[in-house]
Amino acid sequence: MPIVVRIDVELARRKMGVNEFAELVGLTPANVAVLKNGRARAVRFSTLEAMCRVLDCQPGDLLEFVDEEQVADQAVRR
To answer: In order of start, what are the domains of the chain with their CATH numbers?
Structure first.
C-alpha cells in the first residue's frame, strides 16, 4: 500500500505505549494495532486530529506516501 503509517515512530519518540496512546486518543488497543500495522483502509479526520493532538505532531508525521513503482524501479536498477 502506498500510504505508510508511522505511528510507531512517533510513539517511540515519546516513549509512549500503545495502551496509553489508545486511551488518550479514544481507540481500542486493537484498533491502534490495525492502524500501526498498516491494515486500516480508512482513518476518520476526527481520529487523525486526536492522534495529532496527543502526539503534538502534524498528519504528515503519521502518514507518508511511498510510490511503490519508484521503489520497485530502484530495486531493479540495483
So the answer is: 3-77 (1.10.260.40)
**Positive or negative torsion for Cα 68, 71, 77, 78:** negative
Q: Return the half-sphere exposure (C-beta side, CA atoms, 13 A cut-off) of residue 14.
A: 15
Within 1-78, residue ranges assigned H as helices are: 7-13, 18-25, 29-36, 45-55, 59-62, 68-77
Q: How far apart are CA 17 and CA 36, in angstroms?
A: 12
pLDDT of the residue at 2 = 85
| DSSP 8-class letter at 37 | T
Measured distance CA(73)–CA(61) in Å, rounded: 26
User: Which band of pLDDT confidence, cut at 50, 70 and 90, is reported for residue 74?
Assistant: low
Does residue 76 have a pLDDT over 70?
Answer: no
In a 3-state reduction of DSSP, which class is residue 63?
A: strand
